[in-house]
Amino acid sequence: MAPRKLAAGNWKMNGTLASLAEIDRLLADHPASGCDVLICPPATLIQAMAAKGIATGGQDCHAKASGAHTGDIAAQQLKDVGASHVILGHSERRTDHGETDAQVAAKSVAAHEAGLVAVICVGETEAQRDAGETLDVIAAQLAGSVPDGATAANTVIAYEPVWAIGTGRTPTSDQIAEVHALMHERLSARFADGADMALLYGGSVKPGNAAEVFAIPHVNGALVGGASLKAADFGPIIAALSAA
Ligand code: PGA
């Protein structure tokens, strides 16, 4: 079974109720036929977005099911308002909040227990790439961040080079291919259905480079930040993935 294709949008800390008009536009103008589509908006918008009938996800969750953790959200609470997925270990969480691989793995277990698909992010910094450490960094993040209970049904992996996020810079197709081949190999070796786990690329995916990215072996979709905010940008990316 080939991995399912997924176009995932990460709205980060952008958007208010008025932004839901973009979802109406997306559903009206760009009906996805050949791939799954997911938007991960700020938590404040999850319930209203899910009610529109589009797959919706959180951007983080706590490892615990409930308790005295001011400002945090439990995986069950995301599920309760209609989320089906949650992004975990995004580089902005790793940088801004010091999240470690072990914490990402614990959050992923919580997501799985709540019935959410964990979209687990990995990626090297520019200094690590310059030092020739990219494949070692990705292998270590995969080993540490993806929990033993991961399956192709409950886990998606996103390769997001930190230096490509929000910068307009993207790796070459060969550089993406090299990392995705490594991820495919490691996940296949570790998990019974690891070969079927969807592998996304993320980092400055735009309408203009989407088709090239989706032609790379073992790239099953994208995690899209800035270009997911507007239907006019995200729609063509969905179309490119559907056609890939
Ligand atoms: P970008 O962000 O598409 O704006 O580069 C990607 C991400 O951080 O998921």
Fold and architecture overview:
The chain is an alpha/beta fold. It has a domain at 74-243: TIM Barrel (Alpha-Beta Barrel). Helices cover 38% and strands 16% of the residues. It has ten helices and eight strands. The protein has an eight-stranded parallel beta barrel with strand order 1-2-3-4-5-6-7-8, surrounded by four helices. α9 (210-214) links the parallel β7 (198-202) and β8. α5 (101-113) packs across α7. The longest helix is centred in the last third of the chain and has 18 residues, at 173-190. The two termini are 17 Å apart. The model has no long low-confidence stretch (mean pLDDT 96). Bound molecules: 2-phosphoglycolic acid. 2-phosphoglycolic acid is lined by residues 10, 160, 165-166, 202-205, 223-227.
Short description:
The protein has 244 residues and is α/β, with parallel strands linked by helices.
Distance between the termini: 17 Å
**Rg result:** 17 Å
Q: What strand order characterises the main sheet?
A: 1-2-3-4-5-6-7-8
Question: What percent strand?
Answer: 15-25%
Write down the oligomeric state. Answer: single chain
| CATH fold-level topology of the domain at 74-243 | TIM Barrel
The chain-level structural class is alpha/beta
Sheet having the most strands: 8 strands, parallel, barrel
In helices, the fraction of residues equals: 25-40%
* CATH architecture title of the domain at 74-243: Alpha-Beta Barrel
Globally, the shape reads globular
| Number of DSSP E strands | 8
Key terms for this structure?
single chain, about 240 residues, alpha/beta, eight-stranded parallel beta barrel, 10 helices, binds 2-phosphoglycolic acid
